[in-house]
Description:
The protein is of the alpha/beta class. It has a single domain (8-180), classed as Glutaredoxin (3-Layer(aba) Sandwich), CATH 3.40.30.10. 34% of the residues lie in helices and 27% in strands. The protein has 5 helices and 8 strands, in the order βββαβαβαβαββα. The chain has helices spanning 52-63, 78-94, 110-120, 132-142, 171-180; strands spanning 8-16, 33-41, 47-49, 67-73, 99-106, 125-129, 149-153, 159-161. Strands 1, 2, 3, 4, 5, 6, 7 and 8 form an 8-stranded mixed sheet that branches. α1 (52-63) crosses α4 (132-142).
Amino acid sequence: MIKSIYRYTFLMILVNTIHLGQAQEYSKSDSPQLYLLMTVDSLSGELIDLDGEAAWNSIITANRGKAIYANLCGTWCKGCMKSFSDVKAHRERFEDKGLNYIYIWYKSDSKEIEVLIEKYQLSGKHYFLKTEEQLKYIQNKLNNEGFPAYFLLDKKGNIFKKVAAFPSNPESFEQIEDLLGL
């Protein structure tokens, strides 16, 4: 049992998508990572899902200091699959300008995520939402209920644009340039 003066202790479990189930530090691997948004109940020692607000805050905290182009997506979403191939042009244009990518997956199998990461070379951090409550909280923050959903976060973790243009839309390049101050 993990002892703590707090009822719940924050814990983000990092799982290597190549060797699922083997936790390791992000800095020790160049392979894509899948983050499960969970915590440890300090009374029982059991892993439990973070609520929606805590899940959102953990994503924001983990990426503070970075300009982010984020994608809310699912392996079952045909529009998501199409947009993945369009992200490559962004990476090529902004990779040396400080733009980072995150993917927030919902109702998706980890093995399918692994295949898509490899197929589309989806570099960046990948977060796995396990509950509908986590999803609804994020969708409410963004005023958006569709998939895929793109949004921009500034370096302070603030939402810069709740509904960013899809990567295939030339306006997305302008939005990213505004975010980066280019």
